[in-house]
Amino acid sequence: MKLIKFVWVGVFVCLFSVGVLSGAPTKAIDFSEVNWVTQNPPTCEDFASSVHVIEFWATWCKPCIKQMPHMMTLAKEYESHNVIFTGISVDRSIKDVRKFVEKKKINYHIAMDNGLSDTLGVDGIPRAFIISHEGKILWSGNPSDAKFEGTLKSAVNAAPKAMLAGVDLGQFSHLRIKLCGGRNFAKAYLELEDRVKNGDSSEKIFAGKILDLINTKLSEKIAAAQLIQIEDPKAALQIYKEIIDNYSGINLTIKVEPVYLELQKKTKITAHMPEIIPAEAKNG
User: Fold this and answer.
1) Confidence of residue 74 (pLDDT cuts 50, 70, 90)
2) Can you list the pairs that 167-170 forms with residues at least 24 positions away whose Cβ atoms lie under 8 Å?
3) Calpha distance 104→100 (Å, rounded)
4) Exposure class string for 203-239: b at 16+ Cβ within 10 A, else e
5) Domains of the chain: residue spans and CATH
6) H or E stretch including 187?
7) Which region among 64-68, 76-80, 122-126 has the lowest average model confidence (pLDDT)?
8) Claim: this prediction has a pTM higher than 0.85
């Protein structure tokens, strides 16, 4: 995880509601309250669709430092499963935190706390939160607790499976969440296409392999919809809708849009058509 050479203060305002434990009212987590230390911080779209682990820590906290290698191992393990790990430091000096991150080679996002700990009622560190892809806080406590990993695994199993889960993206790992689908998918896809055209030899090969895999998986989805389009138009419509909603903006899916719209019209007409009673039944 590369470091920023200056402090990002409120680079973006990202509010998303999370269900607080024990049925308490929902709160909004405002990530404009943190100053990012590491580069390429998660976007609002990333937070809205991913399992998220937040840990409050400090460079002077021995229990925090003791469990940090384990947190780094988990971050690497779940990297391909659309899980965002964010360490929120309660230190006062960003310089100390930056040096610590460089020394320990921390492989997940790090930010400075500007009030988020108060929002979440953190009264001691280390303190971790596991937030589901639906924005619900599933667990909160010391990350060394045995329940931490079990809850994380359950959250990942319950979340939608990423298209590239388990795939090594190499130097393009920063695109993983965007390539899961959504608003930023096309932008990430086009970045890979650009690397195929203008990158160095290793970038061209790696980017080409990732694009081939994405195209294959999308083609399989399209073929599955085409196969059932006549017999089960509603099911086909759902597959097309998933493709349009998550992977629009590239040539492969642009071709699907007219088919989806036409099928949508037919499905609506069929749904409102009166039931046809055979003549034999009427006479009977």
Assistant:
1) very high
2) 167/80, 167/210, 167/213, 168/80, 169/80, 169/206, 169/210, 170/206
3) 6
4) beebbebbbeebeeebeebbeebeeebeeebeebbeb
5) 3-158 (3.40.30.10), 170-272 (no CATH)
6) helix 185-198
7) 76-80
8) no
